[in-house]
Write a structure and sequence with these properties.
Length: 266
Amino acid sequence: MRKPLRLWPILNTMLVGGLIAAASTGPAAADAAPSRLLSVPQSGVLRVCTTGDYPPYTLRGADGGYQGVDITLATDLATVLHAVPQWVPTTWGTLTTDFPAKCDIAVGGISDTADRRQVADYSVALTTDGKTPVTRRSSGDAFGTIDEIDQPGVRVIVNPGGTNEKFARANFPNARITVWPDNLTIYDQLEQGNADVFVTDSIEGRYRQRTHPDLQVLHPDRPFDSATKAYLLPRGDTAFDTVVNGWLELQIRSGRTTQLLKDWIG
């Protein structure tokens, strides 16, 4: 019996092949000479900056391997560009300096911010998310609003250098803010009672309450704010950016990005 064809890899390859041809011969061809659209296939390597501490988008395991929604997508993208991914570790505090110097693309639940736009272009938005509180279940809904969190006796914990810390400092000036250096173990601190609340993106909170059953994410469908999640792309590399965006559009329209998120957070 004949095995069914997996259509999405075939469509990916056809789409990217067509976009590469168009970008190499069309109006963007003048930009394509130094473009990563040519250098990545030639080198056989797609350099991917990622923090590895932000599941379900990016997670670095104890063995040094990476997994997550954006890790899967970046691996697929590298394949259709005739390359393999090379994971380049970065942090939220050093992302804007690491990306231009070391990487072809940056992935992993990256919010669209003005400072990042200073050094990179953004891809099409993969999803929209917002900040919500993560607390112990025993706390009930005591920290459900910004006013309830912004109190002198409330212990807020944050990871450094990214939008979580910026949000906390802008909205909780009266609370006790502790900067915890490791976003992977910050939930242990919360679960052990060393902090009262951590405000992060709702998707991360929804994933973490599965791995830490004593924790809960409050009103994930009603976040405090809203921001798009996308990839960092090289500034001004029109040919490369066009191909990546075209490929990402296919992943979104086919429902693949949504399915990958569901696989991680249920």
